[in-house]
Amino acid sequence: MDRLNTRNILKRKKHKLEGKNYNCVLCNQNVEETTLHLFFTCPFSQACWQHLGVQWNLVMDFFHMLLHVKEGFSNPFFMEVFIISAWQIWKHRNNFIFSRGQPSFLAWKTGFMDEARLQVHRISENKRSPFLSWIDLCT
User: Fold this and answer.
1) CA distance linking residue 122 with residue 29, whole number of Å
2) From the centroid of its chain, how far is CA 15?
3) Residue pLDDT, tens place only, 91-104
């Protein structure tokens, strides 16, 4: 999980950020931005996952946590949902950092829906129809 240049990774690489602020930009909890925090424990990302019906077991390690949720997800396209959701959280974070956009659940939700509708063409045909129906239920 330590492949993305979160603020924690930049700090460990001795990269100096303006104001020496390595906290998460999506919440106001004054918590250092790690991959775990950004995607799973941040109140902003938790709201995103909750909207999609995903409840993470944060006491597990990442891979078991992912497997646990995948097994409990009621549809065969969990990985597609996971990747699109995480990508939108990452884009939302970057929008704040690089363009001074404001964190907004509605903007995340709109981005998720738009990206999901684009990605549906990459999903196998047997998953397309259920995926589109599921997306419509998420609106």
Assistant:
1) 37
2) 24
3) 999 999 899 888 89
Contact between 93 and 26 under an 8 Å Cβ cutoff? The reply is yes
In angstroms, the CA 99 to CA 73 distance is 35
pTM of structure:
0.89
Mean pLDDT for the stretch of residues 35-63: 95
Residue 76 · residue 130 · CB < 8 Å: yes
Q: List, in order, residues 6 or more apart from 25 with CB less than 8 Å away.
A: 33, 93, 96, 97, 103
Q: Which of 139, 120, 121, 122 is nearest to 131 (CA)?
A: 120
Q: Per-residue DSSP letters for 85-114?
A: HHHHHHHHHHHHHHH-PPP-HHHHHHHHHH
Nearest to 105, CA basis, from 53, 55, 44? 44
Report helix, strand or coil for 35: helix
